[in-house]
Amino acid sequence: MTRLILFNKPYGVLSQFTDRGTDTARATLSDHIGIPGVYPAGRLDRDSEGLLLLTDDGALQARIASPRHKTPKTYLVQVEGEPDAASLERLRSGVTLNDGPTRPARVRRIDPPPLWDRDPPVRYRKSVPDSWIELTITEGRNRQVRRMTAAVGFPTLRLVRWRVGAWEVGDLAPGEWREA
What we know:
This protein is of the alpha+beta class.
């Protein structure tokens, strides 16, 4: 029987079970999930938070992670500044990054969502406003959402993946997981 784990990945945790990158130990999935034989279906950067799916089914893993299947991934994104209609329209149309144009995205401004506190907190600058957008993409390039918001002039301050396909992080606290 296929196992599917929904995990709310905290900020600072690597999307892998071991850390071979540096001499200093960094937090990994093994610090939170003790289930043998499951692997991440896609990745979240160390400095991103939110929903990470893990499964023991290679075909399901490929279906979720591969851009050719166009699985929608929805992010709650705190950006520096206040995007105007033209900037949002550029995201909707697709922006050109150094590795080529992105697919069109769904995007809208949202009120600050009722999320958990992040540790460490996002830097606050009195003289620079910030705002939130909800952005849905069907790709998953390296640091794509961050590069997209920067390309339209609004750098990402906080990035939380809220939904992948039909699965949502919901009420899972950072570091918690459940089977779907």
